[in-house]
């Protein structure tokens, strides 16, 4: 059967535009193609495989820690990396690495999801906590500083906690679930803040190569909506509640703006990433120097110095 435009249709719905055999189950947010579940799984996984190969994210024999929060991004990343590692013989040793910030009613529940993923995917799990590393939980920090700028503090501590956990696991890289939406948001945030230094490196698919343990983003060009669809159709076990301290975060405004753009132009997310990739800093621009904490020796910012003064 054909519709008025000459496109194949099946009784009860349109056929998949890729295989032309099965009924279309979804419209891809990135391309607007109408495809079946099976073809969606194939193209989703193949696109990620291509990103990994084209950018040489991994080498055979490497130990890779997957930053696992229990949310959709890290859960799908753990599942897909496990599948691709077997299918394409990457030769990687994969681990789950979680950070317990000490947020009651949020992180304690999400960590239960990660523990189930450990069993489901057969990947060893390492959990590091703010309480063990710094002597404070995020709940205790918020009680001291209030809700203003708490995400900034948490971000600094979380990055350092991931570094420390990765060192304990003796891994070669940390793979994070940052997706295309996240990176586009970061590009916009750095423009709005006038943060030239971060704008110059925020689209890099591998970061921290000059540090102890590099990080990579296999989902750099993967839309958040497609990650959600993949998790839904695969019936993956993930935690979907937002952090109780994040509703007023500045990033949320950039996220809503990008969603509005995407409704008008689906490729807007990739366009923003491309603009960030093409950004060039003038050689005459003075760049800020990245600091190192005098007490712990890790890459730091004013946040670490503030908490040194508070005797954390």
TrEMBL record:
The tRNA(Ile)-lysidine/2-thiocytidine synthase N-terminal domain, residue ranges: 64-248
Domain of life the protein comes from: Eukaryota
Pfam families: ATP_bind_3
Coiled coil: none
Gene3D superfamilies documented for this protein: HUPs
GO BP terms in the entry: protein urmylation; tRNA wobble position uridine thiolation
Protein's pathway: tRNA modification; 5-methoxycarbonylmethyl-2-thiouridine-tRNA biosynthesis
GO CC list: cytosolic tRNA wobble base thiouridylase complex; mitochondrion
Residues reported to bind ATP: 67-69, 73, 99, 177, 182
SUPFAM superfamilies in the cross-refs: Adenine nucleotide alpha hydrolases-like (SSF52402)
Keywords linked to the UniProt accession: ATP-binding, Cytoplasm, Nucleotide-binding, RNA-binding, Transferase, tRNA processing, tRNA-binding
Localization terms from the record: Cytoplasm
UniProt entry tagged with the keyword Acetylation: no
Molecular function in Gene Ontology: ATP binding; nucleotidyltransferase activity; tRNA binding
Catalytic EC class: transferase
Keyword Transferase among record annotations: yes
CDD domains for this protein: CTU1-like
Enzyme Commission number(s): 2.7.7.-
Role noted for this protein: Plays a central role in 2-thiolation of mcm(5)S(2)U at tRNA wobble positions of tRNA(Lys), tRNA(Glu) and tRNA(Gln). Directly binds tRNAs and probably acts by catalyzing adenylation of tRNAs, an intermediate required for 2-thiolation. It is unclear whether it acts as a sulfurtransferase that transfers sulfur from thiocarboxylated URM1 onto the uridine of tRNAs at wobble position.
HAMAP family: CTU1
Protein name: Cytoplasmic tRNA 2-thiolation protein 1
Originating species: Aquilegia coerulea
Highest classification ranks of the organism: Eukaryota, Viridiplantae, Streptophyta, Embryophyta, Tracheophyta
